[in-house]
């Protein structure tokens, strides 16, 4: 009896304390990795320690995630490639997870035939009401959807995309921007840009005129559903009926699905009387509705919803970060761009000016919208030689390809934290700049994204001046959001 009491009162807490210390990496001698495996992520909180479970999980999914991982990478020994082992419980067979900010290792992973979308994304299927979507699926389901939809983004259609971007931009200028300019008021940059990109993608990709009300509902539903489903709490996954957050998220996902159905209905109604050869084949909606390889409309709705989700805020934030950085720092390239376009009567030529492209590229480097990149599982062992360092990565592990620290890796960029468009005139390397990722699963929508970025920013930089009247803050949740940056526009002509 006494023994039992002793064990209850003394041993149990002792075990708990040791377990906590060990899990937090404070009692290092218990666990040393083999020399060739990447080191554990260094702790930011405790000098000379490794980051434990809690710190690692916060580092990977917290609102400051990109910055935390970047700080961790900076603590790696000089000359070692930017890759660390993350200590967190996960479902991969090896139980190992890695954060990767070295572009060569990232390329090995992204282009490996043994690489798959990660089990980490399992929750994302709930976002599309339990149906797999083009973002999460592997194998045939992914292949037929991707192959069939790809022509919608071919550069043949770039003229149409640019025209739609220009029209919606003009509408935004007439109804919103000029009012702010006349009244001398500031606006929230990312909020306005989200509305603009939603209007563009719903027409360019889905031939659907989205109302303001639908846009508000869409962003709200997406936020509610994504919060619960993008990186899913294991308890939520096991006992979904227990948690009101999951009920709310499911309801929100149903609303997203309903929008996708309205888009399909609208498309079918408009094209009802057309013969097959008259169908337009250059929009995502046409490629999805007319693809016979989907087994049902629920699968189609899943792909439509995921395209809407992935296709608007990433672009909106890239435009926003560009505006913020350009008008905060006023680089020489802005003046140069304005001088050049003064001689260009045709606005369509503005977007191709080199200085504009440098300014955009540099904003997407310092603030990549997809800051934590993408997650992959790789079924084979990877060995990589980096100078003198040999790196071995065990098979069946999870890889977080983290773009934010990669784009600030001093191996590729001098003064990496500085917004300096001129670096692209004579770059140290081009290969580390992969904002749309690479490999067969890179960003399928990059032609549309580039059309939006260059059309919107060329006109705004040419015809308006912006004053950053309120400094906001970056917040990470699946994308790197510029929150509460307020800008006051002045019309130049
Ligand atoms: C649809 O599936 C059939 C049979 O599996 C295949 O032959 C065809 O190529 C697929 N179409 C697309 C676009 O993948
Ligand atoms: C914007 O305003 C201009 C000038 O008032 C007008 O010519 C143009 O048609 C308007 N465009 C849109 C899309 O509202």
UniProtKB/TrEMBL annotation:
<keyword id="KW-0503">Monooxygenase</keyword>
<dbReference type="GO" id="GO:0005506">
    <property type="term" value="F:iron ion binding"/>
</dbReference>
<dbReference type="GO" id="GO:0004497">
    <property type="term" value="F:monooxygenase activity"/>
</dbReference>
<keyword id="KW-0479">Metal-binding</keyword>
<dbReference type="InterPro" id="IPR017972">
    <property type="entry name" value="Cyt_P450_CS"/>
</dbReference>
<protein>
    <submittedName>
        <fullName>Leukotriene-B(4) omega-hydroxylase 2</fullName>
    </submittedName>
</protein>
<feature type="signal peptide">
    <location>
        <begin position="1"/>
        <end position="16"/>
    </location>
</feature>
<keyword id="KW-0349">Heme</keyword>
<dbReference type="InterPro" id="IPR050121">
    <property type="entry name" value="Cytochrome_P450_monoxygenase"/>
</dbReference>
<keyword id="KW-0732">Signal</keyword>
<dbReference type="InterPro" id="IPR036396">
    <property type="entry name" value="Cyt_P450_sf"/>
</dbReference>
<keyword id="KW-0408">Iron</keyword>
<comment type="similarity">
    <text>Belongs to the cytochrome P450 family.</text>
</comment>
<dbReference type="InterPro" id="IPR001128">
    <property type="entry name" value="Cyt_P450"/>
</dbReference>
<dbReference type="InterPro" id="IPR002401">
    <property type="entry name" value="Cyt_P450_E_grp-I"/>
</dbReference>
<feature type="binding site" description="axial binding residue">
    <location>
        <position position="443"/>
    </location>
    <ligand>
        <name>heme</name>
    </ligand>
</feature>
<keyword id="KW-0560">Oxidoreductase</keyword>
<dbReference type="Pfam" id="PF00067">
    <property type="entry name" value="p450"/>
</dbReference>
<dbReference type="GO" id="GO:0016705">
    <property type="term" value="F:oxidoreductase activity, acting on paired donors, with incorporation or reduction of molecular oxygen"/>
</dbReference>
<dbReference type="GO" id="GO:0020037">
    <property type="term" value="F:heme binding"/>
</dbReference>
